[in-house]
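TEACHING EXERCISE
Course module: macromolecular assemblies
Task: Read the component lines below, then compare them to the predicted structure of the full complex.
Student: A.B.
Group: 4
Components provided:
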Amino acid sequence: PEVALKSGNARPMPAVGMGTASFPLDPEATKGAVLAAIEVGYRHFDTAYMYGTETPLGEAVAEAVRRGLVASREEVFVTSKLWCTQNHPDLVLPSLRETLKNLQMEYVDLYLIHWPVALKPGPISFPAKKEDAVPLDVEGVWRAMEECQRLGLAKAIGVSNFTTKHLDKVLAVATIPPAVNQVELNPLWQQRTLRTYCAEKGIHVAAYSPLGGQNWDGSGNAVLGSEVLAGVAKARGKTVAQVALRWIYEQGVTPIVKSYNKERLKQNLEIFDWELTDEDHQKISKIPQLKIIKGHGLFSQEGEFTSVDPADLNIV
Ligand code: A2P
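Instructor-supplied answer key:
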């Protein structure tokens, strides 16, 4: 299955994407995993300038074309993102050109503003420091994003980690509305307020950390460890990961799931020939909400650049 985006000229977006954010960076592992993913049927890949995985992703796609796994680059949907240090009107186009060079591609299918945060131009330093934050020129940056689409270097443009308030600001100045908002979303962080808003505005939602993320702090994975999801998985004869991904898909949201393991990559695509019951939905809708990616500094739940819609904090 695929989703037609409501703005831009991108081909329809395949309903599950493969994420490539993984730390520490291991380009060979990324390249191998993308090739394995193409072999098992993935045609949608997500990267970002900040992840450092544009180059291995591009190499893998080029190799897949050489090996005849896909007929051409056009067969894959590729998303990349403008990092906060590039979030300045005059840096958008050069940054996309650099991204395209890394990817060895003529265009990305989708180019996103990574965070509603601008940092002083310069090398990536993470966690970001508060003194490096500067006011974000939403109008200027969005105009430059629109120019990227007009030039055909991005087939569609969008945002990531934007709340309804941030989206209001973009929509107020947009000639081309954002096609996508990619945010943290899973059964433990359902983002109902944001989803309703995006549905009304025709903005497609994509979900990162659909399985609860990569355990940055070693505290265990609340999605994969959820007892409610385990109960549903048992009843359906599926894994917890598949239940989480299917639930996201049934909300009309596109999961971007990261696995570098071929079996799990395959498993994560097997969510289209069965469905959740009304009772399953009832149970999942009552799961207490927990934002899993706490972020650092500027990107935290509490900070002034928060990506949390307050109404979503307590939806039980
Ligand atoms: P791995 O790469 O070893 O498969 P998210 O996509 O939410 O960021 O979560 C990805 C994490 O979940 C990764 O650490 C990934 O590890 C793991 N993972 C991916 N698919 C599955 C699955 N089907 N079952 C269990 N863990 C999975």
